[in-house]
Amino acid sequence: MFEQLTEKLQKTLKYIRGEGTITEKNIAEALKMIRLVFLEADVNYKVVKEFEEKVKAKALNQEVMMSLTPAQHFIKIVRNELTEILGQEAQPLIFSSHPPSVFMLVGLQGSGKTTTSGKLARYAKGLGRNPLLVSFDLKRLAAQDQLRIIARSLDLPFYEMSAEKMKDPAEALKELVTYTKNRGYDPLIVDTAGRLHIDEDLMEELRLVREILQPVEVVYVGDSMTGQDAVRSAQAFDQKIGLTSIILTKLDGDARGGAALSIAYVTHKPIKFIGVGEKFDKLEVFHPDRMASRILGMGDILSLIEKAEQEADLKQAEEMARKLKKQQFTLEDFRKQLVQLKKMGSLSGLLGFLPKAGPFKQIGDLNVDDKRLVYFEAVINSMTREERENPRIINGSRRARIARGSGQPVQEVNQLLKQFFEMEKLLKKSDFQKLLKNI
């Protein structure tokens, strides 16, 4: 997520850190570099211009320029303004005090709206709610099929809109509300029609849904890969039917980030969630301040901790912390951590939460491929207990035996041991030991 954007911004921040004092000249140079980075990332030009003006005005403040750490002040200003662009603070979903709460999802075809409906229903269920999924599309009744399959896979209720019911759309929607209330479902998540382009027929259909269902949330689902097209589309939906919030999908892909850095600021609607993968648990609450830190390479330790709290075994984590402090990390411990990591998501995704500087940078430099984690686990499972506890006894003949047992080439065994010994060295470094003292 935002890898290219973060890398280029890091170079800019490195430049300003190298300056002994803050002057109008080097601020202008730094802002020029940031402007080019943002425009390459497809950030809305008006957003870039306003961002630049605000940062410049604050950075040239006498208090900043006379500070003992002017570069740090400048970076703080950049972070604060970036947070403002992204939406200031996380916004929770709105639930009605008189259930059912209706969430109406809108967006163009291919934005990931139907999958997001399933993700949102799963999220609501995790909050102790009782969600109901329904697909409403007057022109494509077959659009229900995908959502029905999703609901079944998540073991969630699904409301069928038959062709007969859809002959009278208004009556069908009223019947849906009655059904939802009578059975105590809350929220009602409505996946609406999507087209390749916005047209008046689509907007008429959406206005009908909004008028009868009276949703507490009208959520625009935007594909972050489309950049400024997503921003323009969101503006059009807002003008035609009115939006309350935004969910950005596909932020785990090669998106340049322009949509995320523009859409909330341009539409004045908060981004509430981001989709970071195809699986139904890959929906994250959007925290503007945390995202700003990640984009600037400062990491997002809070989100990483929250992920760990949801998935990790607390007792096992405490035991691991004790072993790390004593530098007693073994291959058996490594195997247990691989199991935990698989629950939390991809390793590359988790490393994205760490700062791109200090001791954490060395972790990011480790050449660990996500695909290899499965192979590594198989290799460790083929070792004896003694070999896991003391990998230095693993000689050539032992490596050949382990390779045969795991179904992997000897090179894979060698690679695992190399990675493990590199980790061992890092854990012994003073930076890491200082960090571990605070655990």
Overall description:
It is a single chain. With 439 residues, the protein is an alpha/beta fold. It has three domains: 3-86, Four Helix Bundle (Hemerythrin (Met), subunit A) (Up-down Bundle); 102-286, P-loop containing nucleotide triphosphate hydrolases (Rossmann fold), CATH 3.40.50; 301-437, Signal recognition particle, SRP54 subunit, M-domain (434 Repressor (Amino-terminal Domain)). The protein is 56% helix and 8% strand. The protein has helices at residues 3-17, 24-40, 45-59, 62-65, 70-86, 113-126, 143-153, 169-182, 200-213, 228-240, 263-267, 288-295, 301-311, 314-325, 331-344, 347-351, 359-364, 372-381, 385-389, 396-406, 410-428, 430-437; strands at residues 102-106, 132-136, 158-159, 188-192, 217-223, 245-249, 271-275, 283-285. The protein has an eight-stranded mixed β-sheet with strand order 3-2-4-1-5-6-7-8, with helices on both faces. Helix 11 (263-267) links the parallel strand 6 (245-249) and strand 7 (271-275). It is flat. It starts with a helix and ends with a helix. The relative contact order is 0.10. The model has no long low-confidence stretch (mean pLDDT 81).
